Amino acid sequence: MLQYLILLPLAGAIASYFAGRQSSSAPRIVALAVSVATLGIAAAVLRAAPAQGFMKEQLSLSWIPSLDIGFTLGADALSAALVGLTALLVLVSVLASWDVEHRSGSYHAYLLCMLAGLMGVFTALDLFLFFLFWEIVLIPAFMLVNGWGGENRKYAAMKLLIYTHLGSLLMLVGFLLMYAQTHTFSMLEMRQLLGGESMEYRTLVFLLVFAGFAFKIPLVPFHSWLPDAYSQAPTPVTILLAGVLSKMGAYGLVRVALGILPAEFAVFAKAIAIMALVTVFYAAFCALAQNEVKRLLAFSSLSHMGFLVLGVASLSFIGMKGAIFQMVSHGLIIALLFFCAGMLAARGYELRISRLGGVLRSSPLLGWVIVFASMASLGLPGLSGFVAELSILLGLFREYPVLAGIAVLSLPLTAGYYLWFLQRSIYGGDAGLRRSGVTMVEFLPVAVLVALITLLGVYPAPFMELVGSIAGQLVNAVGGG
Amino acid sequence: MLAELLPEILLIGAALLLVLLQGFCGRDACAKLSGYISLAACGGALLLVSLHSGAGVERVLIPEIIKLDAFSLFFKLLFLTLSFLVILGSLDAVKRYRMGGEYYTMLLFTTFGMLIASMAVDLAVLYIAVELATISTFALAAFRKDRQGAEAGVKYFVIGALSSALVLFGISLLYGIAGSTSLTAIAEALGSSSGPVASLAVVFLIAGFGYKIAAVPFHMWAPDTYQGAPSTVTAFLAGATKKMAFLALMRIFIVALPGLVESWAMLFAVLAVLTMTVGNLVALVQSNIKRMLAYSSVAQAGYVLVAFAVLSSKADLTLAAGAALLHMFVHAIMKGGAFLAVAAAGSAIAGRDISDFAGLGRRMPVTAFTLSIFLLSLAGIPFFAGFVSKFLILMASVSAGGAYIALGVLLVINSVISLYYYAKVIRVMYFEGGEVHRAEEPVMLVAALVVSAIIVLYVGIFPESAIQLAKSSAASLFTP
């Protein structure tokens, strides 16, 4: 079943390209159909996800036997959760690009290629395959930013491409060092064979692999590509960059850095936690200073990703569960926020905070959605962001009370920049003209995202149970609790 | 013995036929006819060679002088594939440059020389074969009858002569020690002793061949020559001629000088670092696409040299040598393809600056699409052949451990730098330029481009057979 998550979008990409040569509106229909179907498969994967155990092999084809490389896919609760998130956010992104007319065939083809690559990353069981998908996601992202982005797109696209490419190649060197000692690329076998004192170059391996993920998440100081890329990308692509591509880094950190190299991770856990904490504060202060909606959201996203990494680095059961929860929760919330930014732009608002104002009066429904999303992002109890951050903080308190104490201080800061943003942009201002209402194509994704954020916030138990076993296993491997 | 040499006989026969033909028909008709004859000869030879290849082929045709083994078959495959593609593409380009049948004659002579070089296990024969192949390319490089064409030809000729002299001097030193020009005899005579004379020979050989493979600091001629020569010829020079020098290096150093591996691998490591770093950094600032591709060629040679440097490690030597072989093959196809794409673009675009390619994606969709494939492959993006071979080199260097890991990390950083200038071209082709009209794409060139692109994609997606072929070909070098 997993292979269709990759094959279907690929076929869709080709179909969309050729549909684009016939008419400029056909590709979006193709993309919509394919992403709905993919979401269906993803839902089935999520249902079938084994509550117990690390990755299970589901598809295994011999591919390059002379290098011990196989085309093996598998899924566990962690993968399945991210597969589901990806499918959902790509659908949201397709709906957000409903009015793209300029070369829409290529545009949707790139979107679907990205979907295929992302699905590959989250289900690959072979490190070589993982790396291939990881790399290939970059190309459509580069093309999308370059072809449909904002004013400064050329610079932003190239920066995104070069920075993350550097990270992934360093990661590849780490993978090869691991391969040199195990003669396998299978994640499952490596998990058995690697680790401990006997491993050669263990520090080097870990640092190389970590660099790859740190560039992608990103953590300060590997983040300088992020504000440009997020703000210059077309909004539907930003939804994916912030919602899903950042999760590639987080997923890799959990799956590879922690899952395969637990002992090394434990050595560096505190350093990683400090890095994450710096990211949280640095990004929050930067967000405070932004005058552009998308840049503010970019830094807010960065800050929340830092929180996620804090949870992983706490190496505690509850913190790990919180981090996995945060992957999904942050994906949903940031997608909603950027979707709102896209809706603002579509209604002719200027996305400078100083020029906004009175959105609540000129577009009441949209204004309320922005208020809701901001509240979710700043961690209002009852919404999913709160559950995630609370679990992360609880986990962190157990291991690093001082760091946790500092981390708590970031909450009022986050609340501060969101409330200030709302005050300046949503409230106040001139009454202005009443702008056009929310269309059906916009309402649907907004409603789904709002519902999910609320549902996960009010009743997180089923999801927490789903990821409980995998979180427990990851933490037990390093002797945490 | 004749059966094994059938491909060579076919080529030299066709070449001589073309010489005779010049007297009997008009210039244009003759050029056309010659093109098809040489295409057929090359295709036939390619077919014969590919039927031949496979494991366990090893025939000594003339003891200690000419040997047909998996290694030589691998290179024959490379040379003939590239010649075939270049001749196919030239059927269109010949008219533009007003080239006659002599163009094909020289291509065939060159290819013939390369095939002999691939089999030579004697320094004298190797030298003569290399010279035979090189001298014809001097004329090819000077085919454009303008200032740039002349500069290309003269530079190439002077440097070629100089490098041959250096090589010859190295060979004479080895002969002085061993009393023989046979590679195996030299290996026996030298043993593991590394006297000053042998070291001097190593230095001269590396310098001489260093010019031919355009390794930094011996690379200055390459950009001018590649820029000034017609693009189809450049495709051949970058794709095939350069690989012949690599072939000679591998044969000589692995078979004849294994005892000195410590010293020559060290030199190759230094050359590798210089070559890839300088090549990539200079390529970054090029505005002419042919110069950019030329410097990219320099950098790519550096990657191969990394694999050469790894030969001194205790790790899997067939992996390192196989990686080098595969990268040469892949590079021949992708770089050859890229220059052929430039030739194809030349039918509609006058300039050769990267900015002249703006809007090519809509103007010549097939050319632009295949060129993008070659560029992504050159950058080493997964699912393209260039990734597979570069990955193998990286794997060989990383698994050798120690300082070789640093070499691998340098390769990786260089690869990142190179992505910038390759991606820039793709961006210009697809996202710049205003309204453009669809231009007609030259049929034969497009055919050559599509075939090359298919090879690049096939090796990229299903690399198993290519990796095995490269590894088994490399293995035949290490078995005496």
Features of this protein?
heterodimer, A: 481 residues, 2 strands, 3% strand, globular, B: 480 residues, mainly alpha, two-stranded antiparallel ribbon, 19 helices, 2% strand
Model description:
The complex is a heterodimer of chains A (481) and B (480). Helices cover 75% and strands 3% of the residues of chain A. Chain A has 481 residues and is mostly helical. Chain A has a two-stranded antiparallel sheet. The longest helix of chain A is centred in the middle third of the chain and has 30 residues, at 153-182. The model of chain A has no long low-confidence stretch (mean pLDDT 92). Chain B has 480 residues and is mainly alpha-helical. Chain B is built from 19 helices and two strands. Chain B has a two-stranded antiparallel sheet with strand order 1-2. The chains are: A mainly alpha (481), B mainly alpha (480). The A-B interface holds A 63-67, 131-132, 135-136, 139, 142-143, 146-147, 154, 157-158, 161-162, 165-166, 169-170, 172-173, 176-177, 179-180, 200-201, 204 and B 376, 381-383, 391, 394-395, 398-399, 401, 405, 408-409, 412-413, 415-416, 419-420, 423-424, 427, 430-431, 463-464, 467-468, 471.
Judged by helices, strands and strand pairing, the structural class of chain A is mainly alpha
E-strand count of chain A: 2
Neighbour order of strands in the largest sheet of chain B: 1-2
Average pLDDT for all residues of chain A: 92
Strand elements of chain B, count: 2
What order do the SSEs of chain B take from the amino end to the carboxyl end, as H and E?
A: HHEEHHHHHHHHHHHHHHHHH
User: What would you report as the Rg of chain B, rounded to the nearest angstrom?
Assistant: 21 Å
Overall pLDDT level of chain B: 92
Low-confidence stretches of chain A: none
End-to-end Cα distance of chain A = 34 Å
Which class best fits the helix and strand makeup of chain B? Answer: mainly alpha
Total domain modules of chain B: 1
Largest sheet of chain A: 2 strands, antiparallel
